[in-house]
Specification:
Number of strands: 7
Distance between the termini: 34 Å
Number of helices: 9
Strand order of the largest sheet: 3-2-1-4-6-5-7
Largest sheet: 7 strands, mixed
Radius of gyration: 17 Å
CATH topology: Spore Coat Polysaccharide Biosynthesis Protein SpsA, Chain A
Strand content: 15-25%
CATH class: Alpha Beta
Number of domains: 1
Length: about 240
């Protein structure tokens, strides 16, 4: 089968969720808008996540994995997925299943004229503190980037791979993916997706990650925007 879409699933200490992840993804593959394969990226998990990942990949031919030697963070895991993708489209979702892979089809419907389609979580099923901190962080980021996106923390995105591979990732930049596509003069859009409560596992982001961390990353983004090199080849001989 010639796959057209790769779903990246970053994993850090999610052993209690991985069998559910397998079940949800297996339900999605037959109805996916394009032939799809899965790429787990184990970000140096300290639990038994790697054992579960290898078992899943052994029994499912469309499932593959990368395993880091040590924990490097979500941005590194996403970048590794981008670097190793060999399909024309790439997306990612979290292993906590607070978003559904079924909603990738909602995003894929729009990808033609756009270079990135991101989900925006409707009726979020998170705590008041988490929702408030996320809202503040998105407001700060939107002020710095002017990308017009309401929820860049939504872990459900689809990107044309040629654009994804050109993103110069650094720690924390996963929050700025739409803005980085705009730097490439690409087109972006957000689409409402469903949101679910976390059933198992533990969230890896606290108040620091959601507020102070993103604020510091905004300054890193502004530096990168000033220094960013973007070019297009008109002829080649």
């Amino acid at each position: 089968m010639d796959h057209r879409f790769t779903v990246i699933v970053p994993v850090y200490n999610e052993q209690d969720n991985l069998e559910r992840v397998e079940k949800e993804l297996l339900a999605y593959l037959p109805v996916a808008k394009f032939p799809t394969k899965i790429l787990f990226v184990n970000d140096g998990s300290k639990d038994n996540s790697q054992m579960y990942i290898e078992s899943i990949c052994q029994r499912n031919t469309d499932f593959h994995y990368l395993c880091f030697e040590s924990n490097k963070g979500l941005s590194a895991a996403i970048k590794a997925g981008f670097d190793h993708a060999d399909t024309e489209l790439v997306g990612y979702m979290d292993a906590d299943l607070q978003t559904s892979p079924q909603d990738f089809n909602l995003l894929l419907e729009h990808i033609g004229p756009y270079d990135l389609v991101t989900g925006v979580r409707s009726e979020r099923k998170d705590s008041y503190v988490k929702n408030l901190s996320s809202k503040i962080a998105n407001g700060i980021r939107r002020t710095f980037t002017n990308d017009g996106m309401d929820d860049t923390g939504c872990p459900l995105k689809v990107i044309k791979t040629e654009y994804a591979k050109r993103i110069p990732m650094f720690k924390g930049l996963h929050r700025f993916l739409p803005a980085m596509i705009l730097l490439q003069e690409g087109k972006i859009i957000q689409v409402p997706v469903r949101h679910f409560p976390r059933i198992a596992g533990k969230a890896n982001f606290g108040l620091w990650n959601r507020l102070l961390g993103p604020l510091m990353d905004c300054f890193a983004y502004l530096w990168m925007k000033k220094k960013y090199i973007n070019y297009k080849i008109s002829k080649k001989g």
